[in-house]
Amino acid sequence: MDTVTARMSAHHKSCDDLFGEAEEAAAKADWERAVPRMRAFVAEMERHFAMEENILFPELEAAMGGPQGPTRIMRTEHARMRGLLEILTQAVEVKDAQACLGTAETLLILMQQHNLKEEQILYPMSDEALAPKVEALLHAMHGADAGR
Amino acid sequence: MAIASLSFDQAPPLAVPLRFFLTAPVFGVVAGVVLLFWPHGMPVTRYAPELLAATHLLTLGFIAMSMVGALLQILPVVAGSASPKRCSSGGCVHVPLVVGTVGLAAAFLLERPLLFELAGVLLAIAFGVFLLMLGHALKTARAHNATVAVIGFAGGALLLAVSAGFTLALVLAGTWSVPRWSLVDVHAAWGLIGWVAALVMGVAWVVVPMFQLTSPYPRGVRRRLVPMLFLSLGVGSAGVILRAHVLTAVGVVGTGGTLIFFAAVTLALQARRRRRVRDVTLDFWRLGLACLIVVAAGAGALTFSRLAGGARETVLLGFLFIDGFAVSVISGMLYKIVPFLVWLHAQQAQTAGSRPVGNMKGIISDAAAYAHLGAHALSLALVSAALFWPALLAPAAVALSLSFALLGANMGRAAWVHRRLLLNNGAGEQDADCAMRP
């Protein structure tokens, strides 16, 4: 059976791939490539946040009886990442390699420790707490994804 | 599952790991100074007092200091468990570890029984408290993965190494008398391999894929490698204690083979990483893993070839393990952990909705980190050469101190940025923002 853990962890990996390509292009000052790669990465990150914030987290909060620690902290970390994504986008647009690489490094660590917590705790917790409706949930998340 | 009780916000205040990270390089500097006073013409053996003092300044003062600091920080993230409430500042581990390490180095240099007793007791307290904290964290851990299991294994090895070390301190103080030479090998093997190498492996399972975007380590590697290492260590230790040379040889080959396999898999994963930018952590790790391969292969060769004397070679392998492998990978990790924590705490200290502050490379620049890497590589080469050409000892000792001084300066700069950000918080947000930009 498909699980939140499997599906969302795989999406983390595809975001990582886009990040790696965008960062490498920026490091080489290949702005022709860096700008579209960074846009693709930012768009994919936003899509991931939306799947979680609009569908997964509310379901989890409902199952838990209101907004709780884990989802609240995940939302806070999303906000931090959005801040960095904004700086990163600007840095790429103005071809500022130094700001780009420093911000990318910071975002990478923030993103990876966030993913680790989701993959090891939050997603398995969702699979358990939302067991009867995981299939429907994944379908809805995929729908939101395809609808963009 | 107690969902409602789950909280992700369990990281300790930055001052907790930072006090360990700031003192660790100082011990490295002192180790270089001790080597500077090594009398000329002395035979190179692992039992030379200056060498024993320098070794423990590095293993306790730098390696254990950094690892304890990092574990107190990362346990809540990796193990998903709460940081211990008592001793929330880390001081009840930090203070006895600092004083005990200084005391032990002084005991070796001055050969005073009382100092051995004092250092033994202080270090037993430091590690005893730390192991209790570690045990509590692992017991309440929510995530059960290969890394959590390895931390448990490594904790057991540390307990063994510290017990053997404590016994040796009392033997040297003249209080106890047991056959100490086999105990020295057991102490060193479980401390360096069972605690240090195993912990590096367990941490690698998480951080290598995370920082360099590599594929994950194969599941079989993550689950079996550390148990194999411990099995080999056990066999080798039995061989040493029972004076059964075949068992010792099997243990050395098993341990060396496991370590080489770990280094080779890691280097192969890193070679196929998806993050292709220049990265100081990656370069420190590659240097460290290369040293690990040399040490493991060299230890095997020494066991079988019975090189005439072999004392210099043994010291060289020990140095390459401690400074070449362990210090390199730890330094690489510090360049990720420290700037990130400073950045994160600055973020948390900011008011909601305000602009994010700077980035990690504004806290420790690439140039400063690479200067340290260069000095570190130079000191490795010079100290190794000085074991065979004593005329190089003075420049080698200076290079060793300089390398740790550069690391200390980088850690100090991060701590200074952190302090300024905290002072400026609210009133001088704009200043803080500028301070962190490269």
- CA-atom Rg of chain A in angstroms: 16 Å
Number of strands of chain B: 0
The CATH homologous superfamily of chain A? Oxygen-evolving enhancer protein 3 (PsbQ), four-helix up-down bundle
Overall average pLDDT of chain A = 90
Strand content of chain B: under 5%
CATH topology of chain A: Four Helix Bundle (Hemerythrin (Met), subunit A)
Biggest sheet features of chain A = none
Series of H and E elements of chain B: HHHHHHHHHHHHH
Continuous helix count of chain A: 5
What is the residue-mean pLDDT of chain B, rounded to a whole number? Answer: 88
The oligomeric status of these chains comes to heterodimer
Q: What share of residues of chain A is helical?
A: over 70%
Distance between the termini of chain B: 45 Å
- Counted up, domains of chain A total 1
The radius of gyration over CA of chain B amounts to 22 Å
Structural class of chain A comes to mainly alpha
Helix content of chain B: over 70%
Q: How many β-strands of chain A, per DSSP?
A: 0
Poorly predicted ranges of chain A: none
The dominant shape of chain A is elongated
Q: Under the CATH scheme, which architecture of chain A would be assigned?
A: Up-down Bundle
Protein described:
Chain A is built from five helices and no strands. By secondary structure, chain A is an all-alpha fold. With 438 residues, chain B is an all-alpha fold. The radius of gyration of chain B is 22 Å and the shape is globular. The A-B interface holds A 16-17, 19-20, 23-24, 27, 63-65, 68-70, 73-74, 80, 83-84, 87, 98-99, 101-106, 108-110, 112-113, 116-117, 120-121, 125, 128-129 and B 1, 3-4, 6-9, 77-78, 80, 142-143, 145, 206, 210-211, 213, 274-278, 336, 340, 343-344, 347, 355-356, 358-362, 437-438.
